[in-house]
Structure formats: structure tokens, C-alpha cells
Amino acid sequence: MATPLSSCARSARRFSAPRSDCDSRTSVNVGPVRSERGDTLIEILIAITVIGLTGVALLGAFASAISASVAYRRTATVGLELKDFAEAATYQIQSTSTSPLYTECAAVGVNASKSQVSYNGAPIAFTLSAGYQFTTATIAFLTGTSFGSCTAGQYQPQMITTTVANTTTGAAQSLSFIVIDPNR
């Protein structure tokens, strides 16, 4: 059976220096204080596990952000191709400095290689970046408050809708723009 510790021994166990009323010859050495023993193996394993889980969560967040960035860049690039085409087509159809392509009741279409759009049979001078192609081109005519079919002899703004797609990812986007008779 263990013998109870004297008050001097208990003091020595709690404090690094013995109490002043205890004789240093009678103090008992009971071993290192808890704070001097170091960390246990379980504490180290728990710390490593927490650090590992935090690292995995951060890597997952970075991977998600990177993939979202790539998807946004592809969508934005398709949109830029469409806007560039709309500017070029509008200029060529409505231009008054050269002979404009504008025709009443015109038709639009995409050539067989899907690399060019034509307006009333005349190709619109525009080259898509590599990896992109035109998939559709349609035209509608303003009839009062909505767009529909053409009525010959009436002034009707024309709405051209084109779709461009990325040939590798399939990302596609459509854009509609209005052209008008430059002589009106």
C-alpha cells in the first residue's frame, strides 16, 4: 500500500521549488511534472489527422475553383467570338462607305464546313478562332411588335441569330443582333 505524501512532498510535486518551511533534506522527488513530460503518441496522431483533413479540404476547394475558372473561360471565349462576329456582320451589312449587303427579305445560312455565315448568298468576311464553328444562323423580320416572316416592300429591321460552338468541349452560345437598312 502506498504511503501518503507529506505536505512538503505534495508541495514539491506541485511546484518546482520546495516550500520555505520544508527542509530540503526531507523533500521527496516524485518525478517530472506533467508539463515536462511532452506530448503523447495519441495527441500527435490527432494533430496529424486534423492537419491532413484540413489539407485535403483546401486541395478540394482549389480544384473546384480551378475547374470553375476553366468553364467560365470557355463560356466567355464563345461569347467573345459571337460578339466579334456580330460587329463584323453588322458593319458589312449596314456599311454605307462600301456597297452594303443589306437586302430586303434576306436569307442567312451557314456553309457546309460551318466556318462562315452568308447573308443573302454573300459570305460575311469573318474568321472564327481555331476550335470554334458556326452551328446555326437564322433571320427574322420585325412585323409590328414581334419578329416573324418578311413582307416585301415594307421597311423591316432584321434580327439575325447565330450560334457558335467549341468543337472540343461542345460549349455553345447564341447571340441575336439587329441590322437595319443603311439608306433609311
Q: Assign the structural class, choosing from mainly alpha, mainly beta, alpha/beta, alpha+beta, or little secondary structure.
A: alpha+beta
Shape label: rod-shaped
User: Which bin fits the share of residues in helices?
Assistant: 25-40%
Q: Kindly report how far apart the N and C termini lie.
A: 114 Å
Count all strands and give the number: 7
What integer is the average pLDDT? Answer: 81
Low-confidence stretches: none
Q: Could you tell me the radius of gyration in angstroms?
A: 40 Å
Adjacency order of strands in the biggest sheet? 5-4-6-7
The largest pleated sheet is described as: 4 strands, antiparallel
Order of helices and strands: HHEEEEEEE
Beta-strand percentage? 15-25%
Please work out how many helical segments DSSP would assign.
Answer: 2
List keywords for this structure.
184 residues, alpha+beta, 4-stranded antiparallel beta sheet, 3-stranded antiparallel beta sheet, 2 helices, 7 strands, rod-shaped
Present the secondary structure layout.
Elements: H1 7-14, H2 41-94, E1 108-110, E2 117-119, E3 122-123, E4 132-143, E5 146-148, E6 158-166, E7 172-179
Antiparallel strand pairs: 1-2, 2-3, 4-5, 4-6, 6-7
Describe the structure.
The protein is an alpha+beta fold and 184 residues long. It contains two helices and seven strands; from the N terminus they run H-H-E-E-E-E-E-E-E. The strands form two sheets. A four-stranded antiparallel sheet has the order 5-4-6-7, covered by helices on one side. The protein has a three-stranded antiparallel sheet with strand order 1-2-3, with no helix packed on it. The longest helix has 54 residues, at 41-94. It starts with 6 loop residues before the first helix and ends in a 5-residue tail after the last strand.
